Amino acid sequence: MRFRDRREAGQLLAEELDFLKGKENVIVLGIPRGGVVVAYEVAQAISAPLDVYITRKIGAPYNPELAIGAVASDGGVVLDHDLIRQLGVPHSYVEEETERQRQEIERRAKEYRGDRPSLELAGETVVVVDDGVATGATTMATLRALQKQEPKELILAIPVGPPDTVKQLGQEADRVICLSTPRLFWAVGAFYTVFDQTPDEEVKRLLGAAP
Q1: What is the model's pTM?
Q2: Which CATH number applies to 6-54+113-209?
């Protein structure tokens, strides 16, 4: 399955989430940046408020796109210890990069929200939306952090992800909705015709235009 762009992916996801339409106590959380575009379409379709949840990848030395872990907004860290050992990543690097990503989370939270507080999630049905998953490290950190806030139900909604990763994430969420789980998987962007960078200004615009 291939998507034209993130908007189309969000519209298709929204069809699978139609059972939430009109229900109270539903919140949609987009993972910046690209995931917010997808999440906006979902929030619009099911008439739910939209917020962001910022989780940052801890990239490997010399290959920042390869996730060796992730940091969530609450400061929680998920590390791929096997991969860290395989790559011989020093403990000092992991600590320094973790702190750097914590600071970036704080910066982005201020950039996106300004003085607006984050939404209260306890007792709510929370739908976490991204534009896709690969290793699942950032998504894993997100779901574990959100579970601590005791939502009524935690749903992960994504357009695409490899089968093993999606299955693993299913152990962290109450429900996973994934439109496509191709066995030959190399990168999320490969399943989109248009997969350009989403600027911070677009994230802020969508948050301001959401229900």
Answers
A1: 0.91
A2: 3.40.50.2020
Dihedral sign, Cα of residue 149, residue 41, residue 31, residue 107: negative
**Domain ranges within the chain, ordered by starting residue:** 6-54+113-209, 57-112
pLDDT category, 85, cuts 50, 70, 90?
very high
Are the C-beta atoms of residues 148 and 74 closer than 8 Å to each other?
A: yes
pLDDT bin (cut points 50, 70, 90) of residue 65 is: confident
CATH of domain 57-112: 3.30.1310.20
Helices (H), the chain: 6-16, 34-46, 81-87, 91-113, 137-147, 163-169, 200-209
The CA distance from 125 to 143, in Å, is 13
Burial of residue 15 (number of CB atoms within 10 Å: 0-12, 13-18, 19+)? exposed
6-54+113-209 and 57-112, same CATH topology: no
Straight-line distance from the first to the last Cα atom of the chain, in angstroms, rounded to the nearest whole number: 29
Percent of the chain having pLDDT more than 70? 100
Provide the mean pLDDT of the chain.
Answer: 94
